């Protein structure tokens, strides 16, 4: 009986120890409890578990002069894990008296934890603020990372730029390279990073009215792909800062203290406006910017069954990579093939500029004159906030030699078709001999001849072959999965044909691959470019019955296209991404409901 009591006691003791060990702590610590009104205070909110949704206090009666800075410590000592996460703020009192720092909140494993309110006493100004010689305070006050947004309220598909600047006052210096801790992701934007050609080129400028030196780290060009409030994640750096101290060398020079600071540019919110509905043309294809439009033909005079190239070209500044060119309509007697798309674009801080074109191969069938009606291209100009349209000139294709139609010289109907019967000239029958010049020939008996038996027995010999071919065809039709696979592979290679042509050029390959993936989604899911956030795509594919593995592969391909804009890739990686795209589209096409 005594042994049972001991065992129960031991179990309760162990469980209690484990519970105590796993207990979450969340505390607020201040650097001092008494300070002058001209001094500043550091507040650390520290936890021993990784929490979410950190919510700081309102800091009433204080002004936040720095932070939040985040620090994480994760170590193992004698097999035991030690973890801590700290959010730090630097605050300055606004009045004297006993001031209260309210509760901060954090969520850990679904539970909400709060700190205990802390009070500090603020007295009259002191002659020499104690933080004046504190290296951390000096570093916090003299180095700033800023994300400058050119336009925080753009239209859908209107270009904005984010410029990341590092401001350093003349009281401190940075002599070592900084380290990037968190790179911004632009989930709902088309993005292109333009790294500074010389990150160490120092410029002179102002920060909050004070003289500062600064360097431009990076400029990112963004085109929002959906409307509403879109968040830009912060760029976060770990920067070694040399702060001069009061100590001096034997030669009189001041010694410096090196402080490593984690500095964030802070998140930014962009409020994207939808394009106005009023005045929107029916043929609007999503172009936003300033453009010129032109339609040209390689030749306008040719013979029947010769070919010509008809090219539509958009030139200018704007979202060239996502806009849709207007389609070309020709008379039915002009045979027209699928267009080949050509891009010549470049991305700079001022946005995307250059040209895109689509070239159609056209082959006339009959002699005559065929008009290609004017083509209209519409775009939205964000500077004037209006829709503008450009109409091309009418082209007339003159086919000089070939078969003639009754309607060759007449106008075509409103759809560009000619519906009259074809009338051929007498020259087309000149090879026919009308006068007979016949003579008797020697005849032999056809019955039971070699030719007779060949004609009788030949079809009988073909019966087994026809049966075999029929069975093969029926087996192929019965193979539903195989049929789906063949159709899916054909679909995948159709959409990826443009990307395959650019496999020798990383930039053009991944741009073509991204456009191919988007075009496939447009055709398969009937969604627009503005709806193509990764989260939305993932949700749609899952709802359509696509397995998680295929969905993950598709999203990872989109991410690869984003990362490839500023990360070099080998030919092996490009080939792997192409093969993965073929396999993924094929798999998704089979599984779509």
TrEMBL record:
List the Pfam families: BatD
Q: Which domain of life does the protein's organism represent?
A: Bacteria
Signal peptide region: 1-22
Q: Please provide the record's keywords in A-Z order.
A: Membrane, Signal, Transmembrane, Transmembrane helix
Checking InterPro entries in the record gives: BatD
Q: Does the keyword Signal apply?
A: yes
Q: Where are the transmembrane segments?
A: 451-469
Q: Work out whether the entry's keyword set contains GTP-binding.
A: no
Name of the featured protein: Oxygen tolerance
Instruction: Provide the gene name from the record.
Output: batD
């Amino acid at each position: 009986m005594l042994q049972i009591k001991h065992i129960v006691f031991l179990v309760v003791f162990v469980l209690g120890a484990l519970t105590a060990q796993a207990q979450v702590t969340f505390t607020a610590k201040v650097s001092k409890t008494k300070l002058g009104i001209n001094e500043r205070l550091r507040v650390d909110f520290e936890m021993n578990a990784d929490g979410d949704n950190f919510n700081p206090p309102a800091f009433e009666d204080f002004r936040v002069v720095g932070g939040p800075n985040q620090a994480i410590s994760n170590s193992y000592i004698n097999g035991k894990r030690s973890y801590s996460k700290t959010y730090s703020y630097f605050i300055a009192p606004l009045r004297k008296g006993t001031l209260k720092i309210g509760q901060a909140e954090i969520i850990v494993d679904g539970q909400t934890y709060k700190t205990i309110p802390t009070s500090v006493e603020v007295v009259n100004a002191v002659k020499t603020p104690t933080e004046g010689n504190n290296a951390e305070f000096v570093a916090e006050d003299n180095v700033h990372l800023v994300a400058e947004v050119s336009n925080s309220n753009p239209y859908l598909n209107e270009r904005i730029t984010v410029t990341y600047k590092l401001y350093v006052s003349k009281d401190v210096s940075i002599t070592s390279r900084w380290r990037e801790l968190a790179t911004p992701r632009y989930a709902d934007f088309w993005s292109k990073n333009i790294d500074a050609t010389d990150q160490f080129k120092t410029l002179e400028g102002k920060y909050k009215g004070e003289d500062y030196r600064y360097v431009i780290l990076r400029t990112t060009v963004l085109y929002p792909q959906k409307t509403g409030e879109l968040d830009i994640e912060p760029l976060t750096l770990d920067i070694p800062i040399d702060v001069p101290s009061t100590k001096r060398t034997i030669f009189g020079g001041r010694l410096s203290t090196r402080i490593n600071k984690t500095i964030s540019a802070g998140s930014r919110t962009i409020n994207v406006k939808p394009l106005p509905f009023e005045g929107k043309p029916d043929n609007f294809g999503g172009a936003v910017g300033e453009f010129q439009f032109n339609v040209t033909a390689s030749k306008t005079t040719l013979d029947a069954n010769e070919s010509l190239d008809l090219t539509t070209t958009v030139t200018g500044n704007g979202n060239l990579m996502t806009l849709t060119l207007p389609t070309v309509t020709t008379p039915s007697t002009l045979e027209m093939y699928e267009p080949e798309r050509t891009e010549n674009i470049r991305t700079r801080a001022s946005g995307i500029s250059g040209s895109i074109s689509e070239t159609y191969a056209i082959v006339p069938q009959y002699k005559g004159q065929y008009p290609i009606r004017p083509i209209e291209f519409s775009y939205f100009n964000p500077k004037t906030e209006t829709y503008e349209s450009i109409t091309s000139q009418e082209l007339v294709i003159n086919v000089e030699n070939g078969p003639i139609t009754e309607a060759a010289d007449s106008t075509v109907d409103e759809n560009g078709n000619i519906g009259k019967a074809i009338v051929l000239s007498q020259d087309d029958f000149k090879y026919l001999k009308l006068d007979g010049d016949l003579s008797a020939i020697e005849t032999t008996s056809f019955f039971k001849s070699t030719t007779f038996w060949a004609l009788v027995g030949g079809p009988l010999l073909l019966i087994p072959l026809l049966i075999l071919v029929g069975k093969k065809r029926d087996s192929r039709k019965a193979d539903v999965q195989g049929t789906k696979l063949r159709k899916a592979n054909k679909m995948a290679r159709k959409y990826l044909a443009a990307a395959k042509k650019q496999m020798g050029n990383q930039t053009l390959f991944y741009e073509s691959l991204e456009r191919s993936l988007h075009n496939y989604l447009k055709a398969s899911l009937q969604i627009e470019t503005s709806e193509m956030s990764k989260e939305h795509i993932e949700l749609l594919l899952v709802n359509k019955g696509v397995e998680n593995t295929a969905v993950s592969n598709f999203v990872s391909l989109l991410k690869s296209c984003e990362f490839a804009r500023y990360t070099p890739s080998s030919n092996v990686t490009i080939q792997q991404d192409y093969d993965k795209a073929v396999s993924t589209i094929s798999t998704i096409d089979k599984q779509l409901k």
